[in-house]
Design a protein that fits this description.
CATH class of the largest domain: Alpha Beta
CATH architecture of the largest domain: 2-Layer Sandwich
Structural class: alpha+beta
CATH topology of the largest domain: D-amino Acid Aminotransferase, Chain A, domain 1
Radius of gyration: 30 Å
Distance between the termini: 69 Å
Shape: flat
Number of strands: 30
Number of domains: 5
Strand content: 15-25%
Largest sheet: 7 strands, antiparallel
Length: about 675
Amino acid sequence: MNQQTGTDRDRIRELTELLDRAARAYYQEGREIMPNIEYDRLYDELLELEKRTGIVMGNSPTHRVGYEVLSELPKERHESPMLSLDKTKSVEDLKTWLSGREGVLSWKLDGLTVVLTYEGGRLQKAVTRGNGEIGEVITQNAMNFENVPLSIPFQGRLILRGEALIRYSDFEKINAEIPDADARYKNPRNLCSGSVRQLDPAVTRQRHVNLIAFALVQVEEGGVPLDFQNSFSGQFRWLSEQGFDVVEYRMVTADTLEEGVEYFKETIQKTDFPSDGLVLAYEDIAYGLSLGRTAKFPRNAIAFKWADETAETRLLSVEWSASRTGLINPVAVFEPVELEGTTVSRASVHNLSIVEELKLGIGDRLSVYKANMIIPQIAENLTKSGSLEIPAHCPVCGADTEIRKDNDAAYLYCRNPECPAKKIKAFVLMVSRDALNIDGLSEMTLEKFIAEGFIHTYGDLFRLSAHRERIIAMEGFGEKSYQNLIEACSRASETELYRVIYGLGIPGIGLANAKLLCRHFHNDLSAMRRAGTEELCQVEGIGEVLASAWVRYFSEERNARALDDLLSELHLQQEGSGTEGEGLVEFTIEEEHFSLPADLLSGRTFVITGDLEHFPNRRALQDLIESLSGKAAGSVSQKTSYLINNDSMSGSSKNKKAKSLGIPIITEEGFINMLRQEQ
C-alpha cells in the first residue's frame, strides 16, 4: 500500500470522526467541544483530502446522507450465490486442508453479511445476504453505517462482501439506555440484524453499525478485471487503500498455523466485536478457484470453530427468576470454575425442555463451557439424576405456576396477574428520569425490593425507611447507600403532576401528552379523572384512542387506589420553571420575574439548537415553552414557527433548512424579548 495513501486515509477517518463528534455535541447535546474557527479549519482540510484521494466516509460532514423512510425493503437476487463455508474444530484438519500452501487466516465475524456495489467511485447498492440467493436492498441504511465509504478512488465496478457489526461497547451502551430488562437486546448480532434491516435509516445511524470487508466478488475497470498478482492478501491491501476497514488477518503456513490460531484465541478476549471463529483461505487465488465447489461449500476457504474449553463442576442449586411477563427462568448455580481466563459459577438453562433434556438434579456433575468463548452454558450432565423439582409456586408471590408450550419448548409461568414481578416494568417507568426521577432505584434494585416484599404499590417507594435494617444488610447496600436512596426519594416526593401522570404508563400518554392534559385541566386532577372521552378529545393532541385508554385506566378501581396511595406521599408543585396560577405562569429568568398567560405560545412551535446563555440547558427552555402552551420540536419543518439559535449565521443544517423554508431564526435574547412584550 502506498504510504501516502495510507496516511491520507487515516487522516480522513480521524477528521471525519472528530467533526462528526463535534457536530453531534453541538447540534444534539447543546455543547461545544471545539471553537467554530477550528471546526471550519478541519472541515476545509477534510474536504481537500476527500477531493485529492476520492475517499469519502459515510458519516462525513461534507456529504450528509438523508433518511428516506421505506414501507418495506425491496428484494434482489445476488449476481453470484453466497455459500456457507465448511467447518472444523481441529487445527490438524486446517493443516491438512492447507496442503503445504500459504494461507490467509482471519476472523470469522458474527454479524450480518452485506454485499456492496460501487460504480464510478460511488456506492450504488447494498444488499443483505438473505438466503444466499436473494437479499434485501439496504442501500440507504449502508450509507449510514459509521465507516462505509460513499466515494472511493477506484472508478470502475467493485462488488465486495463485508460483515455489518455492532461493537460490544456500543451494544452495552444501547442496552443501558433501556430501563426494561425484558426489552433489552439479547446479543450484538440480533441488534445488528435489526438495525441493518430498518425501514428508517435514521435508526440505523443511531445504532453505530460498522462494516468490516472480508471478500472481493468482482473488480473491473473498462470490463477488464483488476490484477492482484494472484494474491488474496493483496485484495485486502487494495481494499484498505480504497478506504475500507478490512478484517484482521495473518499469513500462515502449516508450520505457523498453530501459532496463528493461538494469536486469535488470545486476542478474542480483548476484541470489541463479535466473532465465532476463524476463516482460512488460500493466498493463491487461482489455485483456490480451481478447486471449484461442492453443492454446499466453496473449496477455496474453510471455517474454524473454536474447540470449546470445558470444565467439570457440581450443581449447587437452581434459581428460578420471575420476569414481568410471568415467565420463570431457571438459572443453574454451580461450584466456580475457570473458563477462558475467567471464573464462572452460573449459566442460564433457558426453559423446562432443556432442564428435562439435561436431566438435572442438585449435586449432579456437570460439564460447562463458554459458547463462542463468552456465554457460560451447560454442555452435559454427567450424572443425569433427573431429581430437580419444578416449582409449583412462584418464587416472588407464591401463587401457583403452570407449564406452557411454545414452539415445542416448555416454559414455566406464574399464574398470578398481580404478581409483583410483573409490575417491575411499571415501577421502572415510575422512577425514571422524566417521571419521579428517583436516583438509586435501578431495575435490579427494584427487583430485589419487590422480591423481598418492600414494594407492592407506587406509594411504597416512599416508605422504604420501614425496611432500613434489611436494606442495609442486602448485598451491594450499606448505611451510605441506604441514606443516599432515602434522600433521593425525599427529593422525588417534591414533583409535578404531569410527571406522575406520565409515570402511570397509561397507553399512549407520554410526557408531552401528560403535559397537555395537565395544562388543559389546570392541574385539576379530580377533573382529569372524571373526564369522559368527549371532553378529553377537546385537548389538543388527544384523540379517541388515547381518550379511551385514559377512561379505561381510571375506570379500574385498583388503579385509582394506587394513584391515591402515591399522592398521599407526594407534594405536588405546578408544572414548568415556576408556578402556574389562574391562567398565569410565573417564572424567573436570571432574576427577572415574569407573569404571563398560560396560553401565550399556543399554536406556536419552536426548535432549539446550539449553545444557550440564559437557560441552564435545552430542557429548561423546552419546559418553559410547553408551560406557556407552545410546542418544542426536535427538527425544523414547515410547521416550525421559530428556530432559536444564538448563532443565527451558522451553517448548521437546521439554520439552512429554516432559511430555505422562510422560518424566522431568533436568539435566546429575541425569545425573551418576545416574552417581555407580553408583560
